[in-house]
């Protein structure tokens, strides 16, 4: 075998077809070249095009040119001779997607099969070790296009691409590179690889889309990059379709390398002026005329013996004329063949270095090491002679190699791409891309320098921000640092979606954005001061609680992942302190969340008194005073000028509402009348003319204002329009001093508060001098501010607005810097950062020791951490001396006061003049004459605001004697006053009618109830309870005849006439009462027994009741005199409605009198007893007073005290009340006053033998006054045992 045998190859051509979803083989019949050769490789190309129906269509002449180039190279090499028995590998494929499919099939094959492609440019193919290519990757072509854009300053471009792998990946690579180079890349249209533009809807859609893009560009000029197959763009530029494209004037094109320098794409156009000036990127190639000659000869003889030549057979299938020769890929095809052959040669030298022919084992060695050897190829055609290589490449000393990823590496100084321009008839090379740099011949491009392709307005599709915009600054030494979390208000809230941001807050000339800049600058400085490694991150809450809550939740929960710039992610657990927020309405609810996490919050602007609550906000601090101080200062100013009636306007948020409450409270305390407050929404839809009309109706020119600068600006803007109709003077809360000065023509004379400014940082002014609007990852806030502040678009980027381009070398001037560094809000932010940094250093030294805060110990000892923050002091330099300033007072509020500014005329402008101060609760205004007030015409005047009956009637502080004129000025319109008086008249009439109706109703009700009460008293007097007297002894009672007599002093005396019922002892029956059961309570000897059972067969209505051994002694109500009556006379009793005649009761029950004198006993519950002429209280053992009287349980007995209201006379020693074992009861059956016609049932009278009527004390009616209720009018009975008229034994009332 001979060395020249190495260079024999077999060319196997697989015909593939491109589909929308991939590639399929059209026919599986390989075309073999030199089938007898034994050293073989395969060439895979897309020979046929797709017809759109997944069928093979016409043959591609570009593919035939590639086959001819490979054949020519193989034939060149084969001049050395033949070699048997070797398979070298694969050349191709011509599509990246096909190459990826083949490489996946070959993945894992042992030994590995090398794939050398001269067409597949997809960067992702780098992952396959057995793949190398002799064409640059698409990423290199994208670099060349981006540098072309930047060279001409084209910052807004469109892309049209095909939907194959080549077009899709190329477009995405361009879009990604555009972001890196500040170029907005807008993907306009995606075309199918089979589109021929015969469908008019496709052409119309593309045309409309291009016009839409043009409407956003300056001068309607737009550059479009085409990244796709040559056949598709060729169809678009056909004459019949190009006529419609002529309408798309001012469109410039850049074509990718698949179009390259193919003249047939553009020469078909009838109107060359619309294709002239098109840029193309092509593979840098050295022409090899021999290859073109070889192809031309084949084409010319294609009809001669085509059966023996596969290439001729394919040529015979070509429809249409022969296309222009495309030299772009000729050199890469030749390179692929020589690369593979050079790898075999190197392998031969390594294995058979001492042999001139193939040595033993070479075939196995080659299969095992061919891929490794191929990747190490470093080939130069200068090593060949004209016999074995192309003369042009040899003379040019062309060479190539591969990098570690298998990508082509050209010799130093050898271009990868050429930049061409089509002049209407041919392509002219105007530059190249060599060693990652674009080189252009500007002398050939003068006509293109005037072309612009930039946004005239905001390029919304390219101003993509993160889902949550942010700005992050990494710590000096990487991760693990304490993190400052800043929350600022850079945008207003969105009108329709509170989770999104609204317009930029440029009305404050960027103070909010400058405040954020001050935040990051201060973090950098506090690093230097403390030596600690702090990181910082800032968010925009967009003046919305919903937006702020969402941002904080997403960040702290870890759902929002932010790169720290060092390969890691920002750790939300490293948040050591929060600086902000601005609005109290946002700060209050967010602080609850941070308090639970024990993270200190230091606000630079929130002044709500809600935040003074140390129970709910134990770790909250602020560098500004509380609104409590500001409201008190406002009231003191009103008192200073002796104003008694003022108006009040406040904003409907936490800041305004709390301020209003404080002002109303302090005004009452100081006898100041405030008109009905006017609330203003901070919504953009607020009607501010209506606000002015409401203010005008209050009849005063002096108005307190408690709210934000946003609303104040809107009020003053509307007031400026209607200055002839309205005139007001404001006493405005802090943060409004700049707005009032800007609108001095309508706010002159106003007083406004400004928080004292103490500056701890002296380097911020230099920071601002060096600040430029460079692009930053994550946000464009500073560039946005720059646009509004200077009224121009910063250079670079595509965040354009309706401004001109900013000039180079634009910086803040001294006036702007002075304004920024002296702004109190900016200084408060820096003070908050410095105080927090110094405090955190002490926290680390005392609590964390080793790690930076927050640490576990600082969280557990959060109160100690808060105490460290409260005591922090900062060094300040003033007038060359240094002193310490304690940032927070005892309430953890800012240890500052207020300056009081007066908006005064200064020539043709206005300025804020300091006229006083408020510190430590004291107002200082030494010269009141320094305060200037103005009338509606701008003349100096004295401002008065007094109460009148009409204005101050709603105020509790109004003094009716005040009749002074209400205001210093009268408005020119009287219509609101007339409307107000009409409303007052209507209201007064309505109130009068209501009052008259109420008076009549009250009179009627009073008369009605007085009559009812009178009737009730009469009925009560006519239905007083009646008394029955029971006497001991063996006498029987006769029926009682009752009557009552009233003495001159109103006392009623009772008489009892006895009637004998045949018993000599003279018993009587008292007809005034029905017979009742007695309640027997155990004697003192049997006190332990609660009740005595009822004897069997006993009935209280029986004619023969059992005899009791002991009787109940019942007390009667005492009177002041006792009338002696004959024993046979009845006592005069109060009138009863009972019938006077009752059936006699033949009961023979006897009552044992013991050692007592046989006196009469009144029924139980009627009052004290009279024993032997002496009244004694009732004593019951173990019982409860029927009226709730006090019970004395000494000696086993309970003393029932006389009921309140009874008159006790001749009281004597108490007598015990004894009960017999039998069960008796005494019951007052006198019916209630409500039943005057009550008739008791027929019962037998109680008879007591040998009874002598006692002399009884009359009952005084005084004991029943005042009138008793229905329960008190009843008599109480005690029932002992299981049986009673009421049921169970219990205390019951009748």
UniProtKB/TrEMBL annotation:
Region annotation (Disordered) ranges: 1085-1294
A Pfam family of this chain: ANF_receptor
Domain called Receptor ligand binding region: residue spans: 50-409, 516-905
Start-end of Basic and acidic residues biased regions: 1129-1140
Compositionally biased intervals (Polar residues): 1116-1126, 1142-1158, 1178-1225, 1257-1271
Record membrane topology: Multi-pass membrane protein
One Gene Ontology cellular component annotation held by this UniProt entry: membrane
Domain of life according to the entry: Eukaryota
Compartment list: Membrane
Residues that span the membrane, as ranges: 985-1009
Keywords: Glycoprotein, Membrane, Receptor, Signal, Transmembrane, Transmembrane helix
Signal peptide region: 1-22
An example molecular function term from Gene Ontology annotations: G protein-coupled receptor activity
Alphabetical list of PANTHER family matching this protein: METABOTROPIC GLUTAMATE RECEPTOR (PTHR24060)
Name the record gives this protein: Receptor ligand binding region domain-containing protein
């Amino acid at each position: 075998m001979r060395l020249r045998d190495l260079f024999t190859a077999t060319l196997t051509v697989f015909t593939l077809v491109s589909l929308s979803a991939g590639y399929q083989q059209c026919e599986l019949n390989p075309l073999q070249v030199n089938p007898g050769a034994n050293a073989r490789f395969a060439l895979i190309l897309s020979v046929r095009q797709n017809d759109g129906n997944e069928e093979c269509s016409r043959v591609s002449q570009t593919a035939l040119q590639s086959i001819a180039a490979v054949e020519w190279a193989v034939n060149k090499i084969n001049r050395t001779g033949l070699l048997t028995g070797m398979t070298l590998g694969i050349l191709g494929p011509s599509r990246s997607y096909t190459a990826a499919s083949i490489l996946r099939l070959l993945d894992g094959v042992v030994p590995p099969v090398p794939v050398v492609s001269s067409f597949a440019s997809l960067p992702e193919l780098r992952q396959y070790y057995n793949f190398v290519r002799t064409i640059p990757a698409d990423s290199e072509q994208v670099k060349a296009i981006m540098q072309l854009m930047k060279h001409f300053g084209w910052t807004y471009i469109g892309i049209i691409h095909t939907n194959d792998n080549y077009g899709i990946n190329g477009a995405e690579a361009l879009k990604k590179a555009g972001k890196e180079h500040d170029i907005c890349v807008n993907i306009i249209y995606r075309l199918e690889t089979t589109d021929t533009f015969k469908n008019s809807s496709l052409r119309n859609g593309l045309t409309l889309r291009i016009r839409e893009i043009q409407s956003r560009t300056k001068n309607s000029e737009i550059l479009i990059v085409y990244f796709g197959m040559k056949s598709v763009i060729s169809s678009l530029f056909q004459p019949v379709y190009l006529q419609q494209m002529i309408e798309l004037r001012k469109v410039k094109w850049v074509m990718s390398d698949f179009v390259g320098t193919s003249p047939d794409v553009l020469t078909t156009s009838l109107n060359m002026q619309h294709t002239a000036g098109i840029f193309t990127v092509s593979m840098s190639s050295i022409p090899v005329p021999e290859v073109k000659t070889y192809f031309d000869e084949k084409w010319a003889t294609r009809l001669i013996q085509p059966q023996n030549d596969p290439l001729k057979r394919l040529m015979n299938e070509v429809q249409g004329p022969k296309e222009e020769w495309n030299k772009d890929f000729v050199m890469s095809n030749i390179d692929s063949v020589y690369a593979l052959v050079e790898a075999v040669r190197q392998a031969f030298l390594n294995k058979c270095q001492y042999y001139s022919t193939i040595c033993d084992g070479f075939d196995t060695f080659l299969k095992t090491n061919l891929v490794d050897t191929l990747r190490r190829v470093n080939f130069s055609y200068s090593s060949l002679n004209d016999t074995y290589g192309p003369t042009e490449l040899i003379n040019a000393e062309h060479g190539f190699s591969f990098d570690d990823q298998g990508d082509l590496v050209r010799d130093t100084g050898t271009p990868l791409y050429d930049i061409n321009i089509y002049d209407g008839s041919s392509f002219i090379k105007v530059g190249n891309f060599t060693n990652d740099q674009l080189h252009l011949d500007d002398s050939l491009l003068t006509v293109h320098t005037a072309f612009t392709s930039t946004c005239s307005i905001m390029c919304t599709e390219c101003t993509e921000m993160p889902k949550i915009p942010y700005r992050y600054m990494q710590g000096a030494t990487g991760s693990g640092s304490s993190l400052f979390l800043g929350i600022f208000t850079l945008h207003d809230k969105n009108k329709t979606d509170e989770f999104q941001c609204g317009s930029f807050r440029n009305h404050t000339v960027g103070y909010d954005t400058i405040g954020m800049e001050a935040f990051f600058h201060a973090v950098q400085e506090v690093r230097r001061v403390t030596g600690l490694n702090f990181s910082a991150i800032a968010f925009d809450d967009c003046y919305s609680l919903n937006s702020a809550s969402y941002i904080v939740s997403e960040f702290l929960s870890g759902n929002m992942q932010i790169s720290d710039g060092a390969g890691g992610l920002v750790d939300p657990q490293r948040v050591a302190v929060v600086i902000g927020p601005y609005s109290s309405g946002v700060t209050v609810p967010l602080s609850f969340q941070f308090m639970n996490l024990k993270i200190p919050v230091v606000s630079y602007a929130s002044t709500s008194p809600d935040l003074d609550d140390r129970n709910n906000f134990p770790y909250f601090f602020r560098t500004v005073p509380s609104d409590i101080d500001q409201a008190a200062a406002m009231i003191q100013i009103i008192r200073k000028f002796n104003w008694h009636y003022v108006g009040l306007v406040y904003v409907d948020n936490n800041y305004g509402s709390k301020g209003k409450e404080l002002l109303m409270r302090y005004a009452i305390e100081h006898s100041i009348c405030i008109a009905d407050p006017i609330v203003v929404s901070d919504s953009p839809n607020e009607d501010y003319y209506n606000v002015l009309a409401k203010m005008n109706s209050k009849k005063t020119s002096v108005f307190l204002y408690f709210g934000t600068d946003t609303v104040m600006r809107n009020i003053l803007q509307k007031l400026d329009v209607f200055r002839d109709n309205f005139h007001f003077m404001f006493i405005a809360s802090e943060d409004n001093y700049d707005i009032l000065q800007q609108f001095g023509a309508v706010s002159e004379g106003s007083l406004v508060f400004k928080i004292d400014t103490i500056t701890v940082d002296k380097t911020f002014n230099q920071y601002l001098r060096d600040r430029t609007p460079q692009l930053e990852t994550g946000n464009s806030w500073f560039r946005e501010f720059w646009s509004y502040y200077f009224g121009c678009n910063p250079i670079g980027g595509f965040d354009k607005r309706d401004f001109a381009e900013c000039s180079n070398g634009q910086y803040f001037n001294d006036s702007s810097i002075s304004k920024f560094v002296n702004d109190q809000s900016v200084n408060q932010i820096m003070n908050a950062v410095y105080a927090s940094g110094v405090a955190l250093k002490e926290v680390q030294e005392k609590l964390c020791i080793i790690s930076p805060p927050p640490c576990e110990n600082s969280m557990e000892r959060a109160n100690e951490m808060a105490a460290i923050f409260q005591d922090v002091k900062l060094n300040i330099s003033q007038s060359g001396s240094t002193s310490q300033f304690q940032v927070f007072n005892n309430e953890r509020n800012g240890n500052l006061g207020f300056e009081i500014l007066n908006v005064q005329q200064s020539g043709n402008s206005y300025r804020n003049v300091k006229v006083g101060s408020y510190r430590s609760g004291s107002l200082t205004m030494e010269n009141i004459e320094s305060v200037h007030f103005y009338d509606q015409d701008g003349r100096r005047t004295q401002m008065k605001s007094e109460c009148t009956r009409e204005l101050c009637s709603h105020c509790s502080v109004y003094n009716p004697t005040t009749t002074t004129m209400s205001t210093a000025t009268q408005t020119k319109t009287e219509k609101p006053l007339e409307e107000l008086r009409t409303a007052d008249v209507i209201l007064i009439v309505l109130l009068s009618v209501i009052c008259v109706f109420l008076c009549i109703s009250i009179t009627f009700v009073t008369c009605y109830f007085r009559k009812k009460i009178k009737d009730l008293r009469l009925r009560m007097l006519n239905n007083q309870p009646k008394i029955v007297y029971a006497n001991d002894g063996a006498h029987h009672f006769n029926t009682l005849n009752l009557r009552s007599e009233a003495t001159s002093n109103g006392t009623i005396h009772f008489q009892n006439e006895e009637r004998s019922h045949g018993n000599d002892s003279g018993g009587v029956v008292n007809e005034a009462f029905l017979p009742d059961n007695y309640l027997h309570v155990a004697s003192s000897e049997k006190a332990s027994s609660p009740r005595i059972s009822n004897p069997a067969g006993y009935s209280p209505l029986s004619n023969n009741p059992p005899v009791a051994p002991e009787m109940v002694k019942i007390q009667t109500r005492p009177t002041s005199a006792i009338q002696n009556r004959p024993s046979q006379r009845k006592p005069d009793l109060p009138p009863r409605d009972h019938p006077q005649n009752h059936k006699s009761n033949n009961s023979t029950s006897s009552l044992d009198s013991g050692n007592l004198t046989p006196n009469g006993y009144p029924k139980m519950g009627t009052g004290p007893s009279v024993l032997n002429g002496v009244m004694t209280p009732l004593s019951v053992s173990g019982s409860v007073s029927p009226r709730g009287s006090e019970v004395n349980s000494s000696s086993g007995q309970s003393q029932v005290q006389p009921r309140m209201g009874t008159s006790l006379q001749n009281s004597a020693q108490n007598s015990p009340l004894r009960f017999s074992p039998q069960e008796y009861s005494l019951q007052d059956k006198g019916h209630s006053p409500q039943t005057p016609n009550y008739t008791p049932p027929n019962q037998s009278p109680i008879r007591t033998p040998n009874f002598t009527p006692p002399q009884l004390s009359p009952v005084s009616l005084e004991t029943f006054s005042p009138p008793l209720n229905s329960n008190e009018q009843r008599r109480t009975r005690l029932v002992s045992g299981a049986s009673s008229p009421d049921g169970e034994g219990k205390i019951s009332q009748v």
